[in-house]
Specification:
The structure holds 2 protein chains of 2 kinds. Chain A is an alpha/beta fold. Helices cover about 60% and strands about 10% of the residues of chain A. In chain A, the strands form 3 sheets. A 4-stranded mixed β-sheet of chain A has the order 4-1-5-6, with helices on both faces. A two-stranded antiparallel ribbon of chain A has the order 2-3. In chain A, a hairpin with a 5-residue loop joins strand 2 and strand 3 (about 65). Helices cover about 35% and strands about 30% of the residues of chain B. Chain B contains 11 helices and 14 strands. The radius of gyration of chain B is 24 Å and the shape is elongated. Classes of the chains: A alpha/beta, B alpha/beta. The interface between A and B is medium-sized, with 24 and 31 residues.
Chain lengths: ~400, ~325
């Protein structure tokens, strides 16, 4: 009952602070919109510059083979499964100018076709020995887009050479995408991370809300009542879990409205979001144990936020170094971070289209972490803020 | 023999090498207004926190009636209501909401908490503001709401920490009357015991039935204001302001001491403080002596002993932290 009183009181306070509440709620939906505006086609186009030095070659039938030109045209026709173009190909003659554009990251890769490109292909088709100048890829290896663009161009080049020389591969290579991952747009790939991002931000809200009680002295007043630490933290946490769930729902609503397609059941994804909110709120409780003011809570909350952002795979995949195996799942150090499981589970549901059975491990891990962090939070809170010693 | 509602027994609290409260033993009687005085850092807040169960003593015990106050005993703790010196409110809750909220956390049912909240809002002149958020109230209104929150669960003992701080004269008078009324039996409301911590000697003198003065964590004195004032010295005080400091102060004091019981020179105020029985009848004689010593009396005040005299005599004039 007292927990319910605290819940109602916290809910009223949050509703009466519309700026902070609306920022919390619209944060992720806004990011979804921004990503959509950033890649309106839904998929990234990788920039490729081509310096085509190919002089062509006169064939026996009197025609001229311009393989460089043909390759550039082939690159222009590369598309995603949904038909969206994959590469944005531009031509250039000056290598210095091209490298300047690469350094400025105006484009992602530079392909230089040698003057004897057609001659080499023609010779290879005739079964003659080939001693051609190399095809050169130039790019900034620290730019992740370079790797993608280079792989795409390389695959297209390989295919082109195979056809042009009439020499089939000794082995056929077949790519089989997991689930519906091949049909996903770049935008759709970002959505699971953004959903987790929306929930992660709760670490600020919960820790600042409780730190406000400490700073204002109202906690001292509450301490005199019959309320327990569990009532206070449970009631307050419930409000922020609710806010987290609403934020997840809003994010989904916006994402679906602008073209996002979930491959798996949406309710499972929402459930994952709700359980993740619970675990993040648990972490927030630990943050507030080390904060006596709202400012301190804000500053300290940045630490778990940074861990969540950079070590849980929310922004980019992080190498997992397995410590041991549990129920067939490799467990790494980063698995103590709830978003790690949330990202994996959401990806499974939204992108690979699995049902609740296949994310049970992640859900149980999230629940266990929620209980763990919440218990530590309550215990620490009692020692740090409610101690009579 | 009055009923003892709160008793401390050798209450001691140490923070490292500092002994904040040392062997504090006192009794607070049921229905009295108990003034708890002391300079800054004397150990008042630490003592009060131990009395409320917010702080565990290193030694000694607090008893409420015959029940020892245990740090985890929320039932015993909720027999006390605390009105802190600083306004402690939830800015984004209305007056009624926060009173109901706290009332329910003390275990009251929603209807009962609401009824009591409305009653307190009415008594404290906040009925019109019952649905206004606390942050929109004036400073005086916030202070009254602060007090209401200490009373919402109808506690037996009410601790008021500097209740008059920041109040205008009208509010102060009203508040004093209300504090007095708390200790009186009223319809449906049991009389309360009030523990008043304050620096305002006038406030303590006017309100308190008994006054305890502590310093350096130790109880210096505990008695009624009248008895305490008598202890400073019998008679009244005549304060005579001189335009110049006398060249030979020892001669002046010796001459006046023949007439009065006690003579003191307050350098900072250029004032002679003369204590004497039937002081007014000796006024002419004192002026004669001063004139004979070529001293020109300026402003002359005649006043009775105050608690401030007692306080200063016991705790000294040195500034505290």
């Amino acid at each position: 009952m007292k927990l319910w009183n605290v819940f109602l009181k916290t809910l009223r306070e949050q509703v009466r602070d519309p700026l902070v509440l609306s920022l919390t709620l619209v944060f992720a939906p806004l990011f979804v919109l921004v990503y959509h505006l950033w890649i309106p086609s839904g998929s990234m186009m990788y920039g490729v510059l081509v310096i085509n030095q190919d002089r062509g070659v006169l064939l026996n039938d009197g025609t001229t083979l311009k393989a460089g030109e043909q390759l550039v045209m082939a690159l222009n026709t590369l598309t995603y499964a949904n038909g969206n173009p994959l590469l944005e190909v531009s031509r250039l003659d000056d290598r210095n100018a091209a490298e300047t554009r690469l350094r400025n990251r105006d484009t992602d890769a530079l392909l230089i076709l040698p003057p004897d490109f057609s001659a080499a292909l023609s010779a290879a088709q005739a079964g003659l020995g080939v001693d051609a100048q190399p095809v050169i890829f130039v790019g900034d290896l620290t730019n992740p887009y370079y790797a993608i663009a280079a792989v795409m161009v390389n695959a297209a080049l390989d295919e082109f050479i195979q056809i042009a020389t009439g020499q089939p591969r000794p082995l056929r290579i077949v790519e089989e995408p997991l689930g519906a991952s091949a049909a996903r747009t770049e935008f759709e790939n970002y959505v699971p991370g953004l959903l987790v991002f929306a929930v992660i931000m709760l670490v600020f809200q919960i820790s600042m809300a409780i730190a406000r009680e400490v700073e204002a002295g109202t906690l001292r007043r509450l301490q005199l009542t019959r309320m327990s630490a569990f009532d206070l933290l449970g009631g307050t946490s419930a409000v922020f879990v609710l806010i987290g769930v609403i934020s997840v729902l809003l994010t989904f609503a916006v994402a679906v409205a602008i073209g996002f397609r979930s491959q798996g059941p949406l309710w499972v994804a929402i459930l994952i979001g709700a359980v993740t909110s619970l675990s993040i709120v648990g972490v927030g409780l630990i943050v507030v144990c080390f904060s006596k003011t709202v400012t301190q809570a804000f500053l300290i909350a940045n630490f778990p936020l940074a861990l969540f952002m950079f070590f849980s795979g929310v922004i980019y995949p992080f190498p997992r170094q397995a410590l041991f195996t549990l129920a067939g799942h490799a467990v790494s150090l980063y698995d103590i971070l709830p978003p790690t499981h949330a990202v994996v589970a959401l990806n499974k549901v939204l992108t690979l289209g699995v049902g609740i059975g296949e994310v049970m491990y992640e859900l149980i891990a999230l629940l266990a972490l929620s209980v763990f962090y919440f218990a530590i939070g309550v215990w620490l809170f009692q020692r740090k803020h409610l101690s009579t010693r | 023999m009055p009923n003892v509602v709160l008793r401390t027994e050798n209450l001691t609290k140490r923070y490292g090498s500092l002994t904040a409260v040392n062997n504090l033993t006192l009794e607070v009687y049921e229905g009295e207004i108990f003034g708890f005085l002391g300079p800054n850092g004397a150990g008042k807040t630490t003592s009060i926190n131990m009395m409320c169960g917010l702080l565990e003593p290193d030694a000694g015990r607090v008893w409420i009636h015959d029940t020892p106050l245990d740090g985890d005993d929320k039932g015993a703790r909720s027999r006390i209501g605390v009105c802190p010196q600083n306004v402690v409110l939830w800015e984004r809750l209305t007056c009624l909401e926060q009173l109901q909220f706290v009332g329910q956390l003390y275990g009251g049912r929603a209807g009962e908490a609401r009824r009591r909240a409305n009653h307190l809002l009415e008594i404290l002149g906040l009925t019109e503001k019952r649905n206004a958020m606390a942050r929109t109230l004036s400073g005086g209104m916030q202070r009254r709401l602060n007090l209401a929150l200490a009373l919402i669960h109808d506690p037996e003992i009410v601790v008021l920490d500097e209740p008059e701080a920041g109040l205008d004269p009208q509010s102060r008078v009203g508040l004093r009357e209300y504090i007095r009324s708390l200790t009186r039996e009223a319809q449906g409301v049991r009389p309360k015991t009030v523990i008043l911590t304050t620096h305002n000697m006038d406030e303590a003198d006017r309100l308190a039935d008994r006054v305890a003065i502590i310093d350096y964590g130790e109880l210096l004195i505990l008695d009624t204001p009248e008895t305490l004032k008598q202890r400073v010295g019998e008679g009244d005080i005549i304060e005579i302001r001189l335009s110049d400091s006398p060249a030979d102060m020892a001669t002046v004091i010796a001459a006046l001491a023949a007439i009065a019981a006690e003579v003191r020179w307050e350098t900072a105020e250029h004032t002679l403080q003369v204590r004497a029985l039937h002081a007014i009848s000796k006024l002419a004689e004192l002026i004669e002596v001063l004139t004979a010593l070529d001293l020109q009396p300026g402003e002359i005040n005649l006043r009775a002993n105050t608690l401030e005299d007692v306080f200063i005599q016991l705790t000294g004039r040195r500034l505290r932290e």
